[in-house]
Amino acid sequence: xxxxxxxxxxTAHLKKQKPRKRVVAVWPSDKNTEEAISRVLHEGWxxxxxxxxxxxxxxxxxxxxxxxxxxxxxxxxxxxAAREAVKIVRDGxxxxxxxxxxxxxxxxxxxxxxxxxxxxxxxxxxxxxxxxGGRYGKFLFFSDAAVIPSPxxxxxxxxxxxxxEICQAFGVERPRVALIHYSEKINPKFPVTTxxxxxxxxxxxxxxxxxxxxxxxxxxxxxxxxxAKIKGIASPIEGQADALIxxxxxxANVFYKTMTLFCKxxxxxxxxxxxxxxxxxxxxxxxxxxxxSLAVACLIS
Amino acid sequence: xxxxxxxxxxTAHLKKQKPRKRVVAVWPSDKNTEEAISRVLHEGWxxxxxxxxxxxxxxxxxxxxxxxxxxxxxxxxxxxAAREAVKIVRDGxxxxxxxxxxxxxxxxxxxxxxxxxxxxxxxxxxxxxxxxGGRYGKFLFFSDAAVIPSPxxxxxxxxxxxxxEICQAFGVERPRVALIHYSEKINPKFPVTTxxxxxxxxxxxxxxxxxxxxxxxxxxxxxxxxxAKIKGIASPIEGQADALIxxxxxxANVFYKTMTLFCKxxxxxxxxxxxxxxxxxxxxxxxxxxxxSLAVACLIS
Lengths: 301, 301
Hints:
2 copies of one chain form a homodimer. Chain A has 301 residues and is of the alpha/beta class. Chain A folds into 2 domains: 1-119 and 274-301, Rossmann fold (3-Layer(aba) Sandwich), CATH 3.40.50; 129-268, 3-Layer(aba) Sandwich (Isopropylmalate Dehydrogenase). Chain A contains 12 helices and 11 strands. Chain A has helices spanning 7-16, 31-43, 56-59, 61-64, 78-90, 104-112, 153-169, 191-204, 219-223, 225-230, 249-262, 287-300; strands spanning 21-26, 46-52, 70-74, 96-99, 126-132, 140-143, 176-180, 212-217, 243-245, 266-272, 278-279. An 11-stranded mixed β-sheet of chain A has the order 3-2-1-4-11-10-5-6-9-7-8, with helices on both faces. In chain A, helix 1 crosses helix 12 and helix 5 (78-90) packs parallel to helix 6 (104-112). At the A-B interface, helix 9 and helix 11 of A face helix 9 and helix 11 of B.
């Protein structure tokens, strides 16, 4: 498979994929969500189940043209919508869950329900972003800008696994995953650095398969060969990271907000861990970002 | 004073300032430092004392043209250079300290020495960056990308004070300082958010003078009015922050590295707290960044 390096190639790839993926949308009653769904329907790479008010198609005229590829499940409120969407996935009726106008916490309650939810026992739930921009010549994936405030060691290991997996789904043969910290020194005063050293040992033992895992290193060293050279750092990442694992949500969120605001980067965000990817846009995300998130979810589902 | 919004206006302002500032450079034996000093000498807004090998001018031919504005203090190693430079400042012989080819830790040892150093008792030492780029129409100042890993409440308060001070030195009449966190909620589970609430109370009590201090909020809400609007956040920052206070070094360093690498932002970094500003470039900083740092230090010294 040829490596998919940007959103244009991603959607071109999806258009050729058969059968079409099935997306269940939870209370999709905002303009941006409608616009994203409408664009996907027009391009023909996914079908939709809208779980919301039973008259939702009266509001969303643009979706009416695709009556054979859009079905509606009427419910009375967004919490019921979340439970119903999760049930549809469990019953094998959908491949991807998409968040509409519902609080993240309320959607997660349904997704994480131990009896009726979507997260297998022992699986780590984390957020993964695909970013394209800032003159970087390929996708840059990273975790976790939305769900885990301070990852435990086990959660960091899971993040690395998901990062390797998504890179492979995008056709990266030997994913390079950089473990981010402001310094390249391993220092017991900063436990994240010793946890990174342990993750490298797991990588050397083959736990993550054919992937290059290295760190601690800063964002510049991870993504720019010249900076690494000036600092005298010889890393197998070689300034060409495919994925970044951030030390915590504060740092990841700063990267996410800085890239989208100051570098006008495009991004797509999904939850990993559940049996189906969950598309979880943030409130200030645009329609195009929701559309991109659907594309990433449909590729890996 | 007209607000200085970019490095071009800053150096134009310095060229008109009298008398010229005096910079003491600690072991300035690398190409980038020479280039930065040479440019300042050419533009005529500072004089230099080079503390290093006594034959240093033989190596740095470009500085020889300015014999009347460059003096040399010969020492045998960089640690001695640091001690000597600090002494010169204490004796009133220089206004700014500049780091050359010496480890930050070694320079700081001399600066922080309780008997012979430059930090008054009770003063907080922190790092402050001036950033220009990413299509933001003015300087964006932030702390701390280099010195304090996890600020205490007292250190956060000092960072806010220094931020207000530097904004005022740049002619910002009523500085807007945003306290950064990934969410705008105050939540005792995340102590930084309750510390921010306390800082806002101090601001309301007038501790920081005529300034707008608000948070917690994320980088996008702080620097983009549109994002704040979509999120329904009404803040007096109005998406036009002059300065950002980051929750910790991890987050600040990600901002610094992301802006300089992906947004090609220009930056200048100095230490605040000592009786004279200390210019402290990072190893991967360019000559232009060192030159900009000198400009910021000479403005506020």
